[in-house]
Amino acid sequence: MREKRGSKPSTSTSPCSLLRDAYHNCFHRWYTEKFVKGQYDKEECISEWQKYKACLSEHLEDKHMIRLLEAENVVVRDSADATSQ
């Protein structure tokens, strides 16, 4: 039997799991409480997304995987990220 999403805290050992959970919870709350009711605020959850994205980028870079994903066009760096290399 599968558990409902968000029904229990993440047990992941990923270094970004808490940030992922924060973004997921914010997005889910925005989607269910606002978007489906016709309220749209494009500024919603941006802080959570940016923190999660930065964590992912850092850990992908540590494992030298970011270049592999870029080569496969899975990840596209922001222009600010690309110029800092």
TrEMBL record:
GO terms for biological process: phospholipid translocation. It comes from the Eukaryota. This is Uncharacterized protein At4g33100. GO terms for molecular function: phosphatidic acid transfer activity. Coiled coil: none annotated. The keyword Disulfide bond applies. It comes from Cicer arietinum (Chickpea). Keywords: Disulfide bond. Belongs to the TRIAP1/MDM35 family. One of its GO terms (cellular component) is cytosol. The lineage of its organism: Eukaryota, Viridiplantae, Streptophyta, Embryophyta, Tracheophyta.
